[in-house]
Amino acid sequence: MTTDLSGPSRRKHTILMATAAAVIAIDLATKIAASAALADRDIDLPGPLDLRLSYNPGVAFGMGTSTPTWLVLTLTGAVAVGIAVAAWRGMFASYIAAGVVIGGALANVIDRSQAGTVVDMLYTGWWPTFNLADVAIVCGGIVLAVTSWRAAPHESAAEP
Fold first, then answer.
1. Is 42 an annotated catalytic residue?
2. Are 104 and 137 in contact, with CB atoms under 8 Å apart?
């Protein structure tokens, strides 16, 4: 059985891939910029967010710092691939939200594969330092859950 990649399905797949690629590009660009600009100083911004460079060897929020890099890469990559396959098959109501989550996860995989850590730069003082990929994963995941929950059963299982 072949899959028809014309019309609406092709458009949705393009949106999924373009969104993921955009998130990856933006996140990696901010990590490069932060590594250069924050190497020898912190930047205090007005409001609750400051810029402070840190390197996270752990999984999330500084937890799992002793977890082997290969395991973190494998698990993160597997989750991203699982979400991508589900989105490709039309199992989510929002292709954009799925692309945002996939892009954030893959950006962190790419970053971690370079040196075994993830570059973080967004600092609140009351929450562990994080990066834009983390924001994409959390916000995209919330939107994915809400849109899937709100979608009628026939909408979330729409065409592949």
1. no
2. yes
Paired tokens of 64: 């799992």
| Cα(20)–Cα(17) distance, integer angstroms | 5
Known catalytic residue at 44: no
CA–CA distance, 104 with 71 (Å, rounded to integer): 18
Where do the domains of the chain lie?
A: 9-151
Which two three-digit tokens encode residue 57? 């060897």
Q: Which residues pair with 54 in a beta bridge?
A: 120
Which of 40, 44, 111, 134 is catalytic? The answer is 134
Q: State the amino acid at position 72 in one-letter form.
A: V
Residue with tokens 């709100």: 150
> Could you tell me which of 35, 153, 5, 9 has the C-alpha nearest to residue 95?
9
What's 6's DSSP letter?
S
Q: Which residues contact residue 64 at a Cβ distance below 8 angstroms, ignoring those fewer than 6 apart?
A: 58, 72
Q: What is the pLDDT of residues 136-151, one digit of tens each?
A: 999 999 999 999 887 6
pTM value? 0.86
Q: Say whether pLDDT at 160 is over 60.
A: no
Q: What is the pLDDT of residue 148?
A: 83
